[in-house]
Amino acid sequence: MIPTVVIAGRPNVGKSTLFNKLAGRRHALVSDTPGVTRDRKDATAQLRGKTVRLVDTAGLEEAAPETLFGRMRASSEAAVSEADLVLFVVDGRAGITPADEHFAAWLRRQNRPVLLVVNKAEGRAGANAALEAFSLGLGTPIGVSAEHGDGLADLMGEIADRVPDNSDAEPAGERPLKLAIIGRPNAGKSTLLNRLLGEERMITGPEPGLTRDAVAVRFTDADGTEIELVDTAGLRRRARIEQPLEKMSVSASIEALKMAEVVVLAVDALDGIHDQDLQLARLVEREGRACVIALNKWDAVPDRNAARRAVSDRLQTSLAQMPGIPVVTLSALTGQGVDKLLPAIRKAHAVWNTRIATGALNRWFEDALERHQLPLVDGRRLKLRYITQPKARPPTFIVFGTRAEQTPEDYQRYLVNSLRDTFGLPGTPIRLQFRGTRNPYADE
């Protein structure tokens, strides 16, 4: 097993900046706004030859359990309970606060190895703050500046010395299926992720927009498939996005979508398919990703037959470029129907990976050209000669022929729809490109 290193501390002491520096790239959102991190965020890092799992956590704050800050603290405490090493971070500029003393005392009771880190410890003031941190009773503090990189080499060495050796760990298996959950705010994305994992991994509640960053979690489903699942911040219409922090959240969500193989579009079944949901589905199609629509909160829908018809009609008229897109009705809150989601995801992934033998592909192509004669363009009939599939993920085809690039859009749609029907490619994006054969004497 890879040892787990959890970064904890009160809000705005620089935990996410330190997390990004140790991980070697920007994984977590960083802002001057206190409390940006709400959910635990993981990353794998190499520190002095040892592989560790880094976990960034929300700031530790005193709050009632039912409040948002109380739920954030519970998530951080759960991460600490699983840690092989806790980095307790304090702010060298602010000095040791009563909150630091309170949580240091709490950490001493958790029976977990703790390494005290004094961040923002630049210059003489930082050195004095590091000395002051001895009073917390957590051993010798290490002064660093995560923002400027000062002291990080010593910190990495100290972490590598304290975590268990994992050199005998089994090598990683096949690459996991990359899955992202996207949707509008309050569609139930985080609740769905928690239901799939079987644990309260993400902060949930009635407040819209709780998730701010794209948070990845790995798990193995009942079928033995390893999945890297990413929960994302809710995506609103661009005109409504004003705050810099929300802009960063949206950027992280779109980046997660681009890195995914299959995207689950979570839709509030009580609202039906909204215009913004369709915009997100079109974005998935443009990025060439497989898509499954999860109609969440299905248990609360009063007339389910009418809701099914409305969703089907809306998709047929407004998402014609992805006919046959799988739709799964479920309730992330109660678990009803969630067992149908992962099989639908695996099937969509298989379709997205489809490769068709060249012989079968060209037999279909000849039949398709016979069924519908090629059109005239500028008074001359097009000549399409053959088709190849250079790649999958998504299925991509190239048609060659004389003036093939002039093929009208309606004939291109006919070929795409015929490909879907003949080879069983529902819902997945299909890329069909046309390349003409140039006459070498045309310019003579």
TrEMBL record:
Gene3D superfamilies: 3.30.300.20, P-loop containing nucleotide triphosphate hydrolases
Domain of life from the UniProt record: Bacteria
GO biological process: ribosome biogenesis
InterPro entries per record: AAA+_ATPase, G_ENGA, GTP-bd, GTPase_Der, KH_dom-like, KH_dom-like_a/b, P-loop_NTPase, Small_GTP-bd
Gene Ontology molecular-function annotations: GTP binding; hydrolase activity
Keyword annotations of the record: GTP-binding, Hydrolase, Nucleotide-binding, Repeat, Ribosome biogenesis
Record-annotated EngA-type G domain positions: 3-167, 177-353
Signal peptide: none
Pfam families: KH_dom-like, MMR_HSR1
Binding site for GTP 1: 9-16, 56-60, 119-122
Binding site for GTP 2: 183-190, 231-235, 296-299
Matching SUPFAM superfamilies: P-loop containing nucleoside triphosphate hydrolases (SSF52540)
Transmembrane segment boundaries: none
NCBIfam families for the chain: GTPase_EngA (TIGR03594), small_GTP (TIGR00231)
Primary role: GTPase that plays an essential role in the late steps of ribosome biogenesis.
Complex formation: Associates with the 50S ribosomal subunit.
Similarity remark: Belongs to the TRAFAC class TrmE-Era-EngA-EngB-Septin-like GTPase superfamily. EngA (Der) GTPase family.
Protein name according to UniProt: GTPase Der
